[in-house]
Each structure stands twice: as structure tokens, then as C-alpha cells.
Amino acid sequence: MSELVRFGVSLEDSLLIKFDRLIKKRGYATRSEALRDLIRQELVKNEWEEDQEVAGTITFIYDHHRRGLSSQLTDLQHGHQDTIISTQHIHLDHHNCLEIVAVKGKASEVQELADALRSVKGVRHGALSMTSTGKEIA
Amino acid sequence: MSELVRFGVSLEDSLLIKFDRLIKKRGYATRSEALRDLIRQELVKNEWEEDQEVAGTITFIYDHHRRGLSSQLTDLQHGHQDTIISTQHIHLDHHNCLEIVAVKGKASEVQELADALRSVKGVRHGALSMTSTGKEIA
Amino acid sequence: MSELVRFGVSLEDSLLIKFDRLIKKRGYATRSEALRDLIRQELVKNEWEEDQEVAGTITFIYDHHRRGLSSQLTDLQHGHQDTIISTQHIHLDHHNCLEIVAVKGKASEVQELADALRSVKGVRHGALSMTSTGKEIA
Amino acid sequence: MSELVRFGVSLEDSLLIKFDRLIKKRGYATRSEALRDLIRQELVKNEWEEDQEVAGTITFIYDHHRRGLSSQLTDLQHGHQDTIISTQHIHLDHHNCLEIVAVKGKASEVQELADALRSVKGVRHGALSMTSTGKEIA
């Protein structure tokens, strides 16, 4: 279990005033919490840049009336079982399905899977959400 | 049901060669499909800029051992029932949980909810994935 | 003139180790410097979100052989004199010009000007670089 | 010199209506122009992903009163002569300078130079603008 350590930071007072205003607006209770989040954001960015093991979600939209599309998407996902944790399916309206694929794996493999899903004919839009497995930001 | 229409596009031949190379690399079968996806990307970007009704996912990571955190997150989500469609919870390892919230609502409300979840103490990282309800890109 | 103030930050020791590794990789001499930069990044992001007075550059590429294009771009720029500080012109090769417009103004006006320049026929690509007037991050 | 070629694109009529609305809002005269720009955007994104030769600008802000900073920045830039085309210096106010470095080189080298300039003590904010040498999008 990791312990809290304390260290000192030097900052221009004028900059600190602006930072305090921003963290209040964003709803943080303390400076330490806000700084911790900024640090984690940078670490997560770095995980993706260095092609480390990451986690994320691939979210895409498609029309389930399109013949054969659902099974094509399922096939594609089965070919990436090592990367995919789970898939959630949401019926947005009569036509549109939102499918959310939770993924964990090397950043480049996750990116590749996202590209593959996005380029399937009938998938209307896809977005990749980049986060962390949590190990490197604890 | 929408029908396919056909129209002509003029392009420099040198540009077309490079585009054909790119769509092959990305795995598209035809130019029309690739262009359709580019158009939809722009439309989705525009939905978010104009604060229209959008869909998306908020993905975040937290340590479920932190006392009171789960119930705090649940409370926060219940306060946004109109925006949240469903929540999926994934156990990444002994400590880290990945929680994926599927959302639908005004872009600004979705953004606000993402900020609120991200700034909860104990949430280690959060990412917002921006897609569409599908209505405006069909 | 702003003075340096010092305050304490609490961080998990495991997170601090990873942060120290990252700031070394990025070339920072001290934690304070790295944190100052993270804070400023957030403040600049916030300036653009809140449509404050910002600074930036609009960089675009065009073919100067295209008849009438240069004067059309100059005309457009003259219509935005209040936002434009200066324009630098670089001859990339026989055909391609890189034009860099330094801008200062409300974020929304800068964005509008970037869109206008980008959509001129013959402009091949445009990119907007978002930074600050410096006042709010000192 | 490249010639214009014409080819047909199939699109759902409902999607075409929305696209026409968007290109009107963005100020394009024809669909071909708007599509050409979408295609070029993708090609430029691809140039950066594949670490090809690219062009761009590095824009940063610093306080010129800081002793030794200007010469440190000049030294750093001289060490990257092959990548830097030119530098433009703008006096934003009594304290803040905006420096705009036009660059051309491998994407990874440009990125590295941007990181190096950003992490210099006294540089308050830096932004990298990614565009193309124009050769691959003509």
C-alpha cells in the first residue's frame, strides 16, 4: 500500500491565485487533489505515447437493421479476445445502437482495434477513450 | 428510410492517389464509405460544438478499497439520471475499477457530469468519449 | 512583480516515483517547474473554454501559383486587423507557401478567423495553435 | 501539374442534407471543396502518425525580463538549425513575448524540439501546430 509523502512546491503568488480560482471552479477540495489529477493526466498521456499496457473504451454507433452487421461486429471482436474485456450494448432508438467495448492491452493494439471497428461498413461513428489500467497512476 | 443519392466530386488526380492509398491502409472498401465516415466525423464534431443532444461514454478509474467512494459515485450518478443511460463496472485488478457510464444529453451537461466525476477524490483518471445519438448522422 | 510562495503537496509515494521519472524524461530540473507548467497548461485551456482574450497562431499552406489567392488572403486578413498582430510568409518549395498569422483576441474571434482562412479555396491545410497572452499565467 | 478528375460518391440523402448545411455554415462554395479539405486533414494526420516529413509552428510565451532566458532559447534553437526555418518574435506586452518558430522536418524531431522549448525554465506555455509541407496533400 502506498503512503502519502509531503513535499514543497514554489510558485509565483499571482499564478497561485489563478490556480486556486480554477480548482474551486472545477470542484476540488484541496490543491494536492488537483495537482494529483494533473500529474495522473500526464502519466496516462505518457502511457499511450510509450505504447504501454493501457485501458480504455471504444464506443461506436451503428444501425442494427443493417443485415449481417451485428454478426460481423461480433466476429471482429472475437478475433481480439485478448484485448476486449466486455461489450455493452445500448438501444438508443429504433435504429441506432451504441456499443461500448471495454479494452485492455498495448496502446497500439487498442488503437488498431478501434480503427478496425470504425471502418466497418455501417458503423456510423466511433470514438476511442484513453485511460489507464490504474497500475501506473497509483 | 433514407435513400442513396449519387453526386460527382472533383479532385486533383495527385490528391486522389494519396487518398486511395490512405483508405486502403484504413481498411475501407470504397471511396464513398471513407468519405461518408469523414463527413460523419465532422457532423459529430459540430454536434458537440453547437451543444446539441449527443451521446458518449465517461470512463474512469478508481480504487474500490477507498471507503465511501463507491457510494459517493453512485450518489453523484443518481443526481444525473436524465443524462445517464447505464453504468458498467469492470474489476481491472485487486485495486482498480474501470467504470463506464453511457450518457445521452446536451453536450454541456455531459461535459459537466464528466468534470464532476473526474474531480471526486479517489477517482484516478477520467476520459470522455464524444459520439452521437446517431440521428444527425444517418 | 509576483513573488515566489511555497506550499506543501501530499502525494502517494508510488505516484511521486512515477512523476519524478516523467519529469526527468521531459527535461525538467525540479518538481516545482514541472508542476508550474501543468498548472499553466490547465489555465490556458480554461482561457480558451471561457472565451477570454487569448493569443495564438494560425498556420496554413497554399499554392501561391493559384491566381488571385494571395490577394484574397490579404484582403481577408485586413478585415481582421484588430485580431492579427503580424503575418510571416515562408516559401516551402516551388509551389507551397507556409503562412503564419500571429493573433490576439477573444478566443471565439480567433477561431472564426481560422475557420475563414481554412475554407478559402486553394488553402490546402490550416492549423490553429492555442496559447495565451501570458497575463493570466504569470 | 495535377489535373482535376471526377468520380461519383454515393451517400444517404438524409446525410447529404446535413452535410450541405454544415458546408454552408463553414463557408465552402462546393461539396468538392469541402471534401477536399476533409481528405487533406486526414492525410496530414497520417503524415504525423507515420513520422513523415512535416511542417508546423512551435509557439511559446516567455518573460523576456528573465535574465539569460533569451540567449538560452537562441542557443537551443541553433542546435536545431536543420529543423528550424525561421523565428518570429512578438512583444505582447511589457513582460510577455510570443515567439513563433516555423519548422520543417521529421514529425518526431519537431515534437522533440517542441518539448525541449516548452520545458525551458521561464517558458510559460508552448503549443505545437501540426501541418504539412504541402507535397503530400497536393
Explain what the structure shows:
- The first copy, chain A, folds into two domains: 13-49; 53-137, ACT-like. Chain A, domain 2 (Alpha-Beta Plaits), CATH 3.30.70.
- In chain A, a hairpin with a 4-residue loop joins β3 (84-91) and β4.
- Chain A is α+β, with helices and mostly antiparallel strands and 138 residues long.
- Chain A has helices at 13-26, 31-49, 69-78, 107-118, and strands at residues 4-12, 53-63, 84-91, 96-106, 123-131.
- Chain A is built from four helices and five strands.
- Chains in contact: A-B, A-C, B-D, C-D.
Topology, element by element:
4 copies of one chain form a homotetramer.
Chain A: E1 4-12, H1 13-26, H2 31-49, E2 53-63, H3 69-78, E3 84-91, E4 96-106, H4 107-118, E5 123-131
Antiparallel strand pairs in A: 2-4, 2-5, 3-4
For the largest beta sheet of chain A, what order do the strands appear in spatially?
3-4-2-5
Mean pLDDT score of chain A: 93
**Number of separate strands of chain A:** 5
Helix count, DSSP H or I runs of 4 or more residues of chain A: 4
CATH architecture of the largest domain in chain A: 2-Layer Sandwich
Q: Into which percent range does the helicity of residues of chain A fall? A: 25-40%
Q: Tell me the CATH superfamily of the largest domain in chain A.
A: ACT-like. Chain A, domain 2
The best one-word shape of chain A is elongated
- The topology string of helices and strands of chain A comes to EHHEHEEHE
Largest sheet of chain A: 4 strands, antiparallel
* Quaternary structure classification: homotetramer
CATH class of the largest domain in chain A: Alpha Beta
Q: In the residues of chain A, how many domains can be counted?
A: 2
